[in-house]
TrEMBL record:
Residue ranges of domain Fe2OG dioxygenase in the record: 98-197
KW Metal-binding (keyword) present: no
InterPro entries: AlkB-like, AlkB-like_sf, ALKBH3, Oxoglu/Fe-dep_dioxygenase_dom
Keywords: Dioxygenase, Oxidoreductase
Protein name: Alpha-ketoglutarate-dependent dioxygenase AlkB
Source organism: Streptomyces luteosporeus
Domain of life: Bacteria
Entries under Gene3D superfamilies matching the protein: Alpha-ketoglutarate-dependent dioxygenase AlkB-like (2.60.120.590)
GO molecular function annotation: dioxygenase activity
Length: 199
């Protein structure tokens, strides 16, 4: 059933990209099947809110819609609970704790974006940790470069059920962003799972 919403590949098939400085990126294209029907459910049912605030090191007004699910909150679809549990199991030894929170971002079109940053609110600024992201809807590239600037070193498209996991020192030694684009692009939702105290 092409439209069934389910995880379809073992996480062991993820490919690891060593970024250097103790940072890495695991990539698993098409982890989630049925991402289009899931997208429709999330657009309709998630309590999206617009947010203008300062976040991360230096900026930013937030040109995208957000929703946050803390520990113990029910996630907006059971497949997201399954995904969080599968990630917690697969990375248990390496991470040493489960993924606990979920942040959802809705990029309505190419004007929605997130500026260069590391997830350094909390423990990501001091410790190795992991942030797992599933992209659904239209792919938008996640760019990575070493913290402090310089050219983009990785450009990883994320959409239609693709998974990336940023790990090791990635949040403090590297920055990531989803740039604006003037190309016509459809909407995209990003789902990020993080351990306790990582933001
Ligand atoms: O949209 C994405 O895939 C990345 C989002 C992100 O980096 C964040 O919310 O911290
Ligand atoms: Fe981030």
């Amino acid at each position: 059933m092409a439209d069934e919403i389910a995880l379809r590949r073992p996480l062991a098939e993820a490919r690891r990209i060593e970024l250097g400085q103790g940072a890495w990126l695991d990539v698993l294209p098409g982890w989630l099947a049925g991402s289009d029907p899931l997208f429709e459910v999330l657009v309709r049912t998630v309590p999206w809110r617009a947010e203008r605030r300062h976040m991360y090191d230096n900026e930013v007004d937030v040109p995208r819609l957000l929703a946050h699910y803390g520990e113990g909150d029910d996630l907006p679809h059971p497949v997201l609970t399954e995904a969080r549990e599968a990630l917690s199991t697969h990375y248990a030894a390496e991470l040493g704790e489960p993924f606990r929170t979920a942040g959802l971002c809705f990029y309505r079109d190419g004007r929605d974006s997130v500026a260069w940053h590391g997830d350094r609110i909390g423990r990501g600024s001091r410790e190795d940790t992991m942030v797992a992201i599933i992209g659904i809807g239209e792919p938008r590239p996640l760019l990575l470069r070493p913290h402090g600037g310089g050219p983009t070193r990785v450009r990883q498209p994320l959409g239609h059920g693709d998974l990336v996991v940023m790990g090791g020192s990635c949040q403090r030694t590297w920055d990531h962003c989803v740039p604006k684009t003037s190309r016509p692009v459809g909407p995209r939702i990003s789902i990020q799972f993080r351990p306790r105290g990582v933001g």
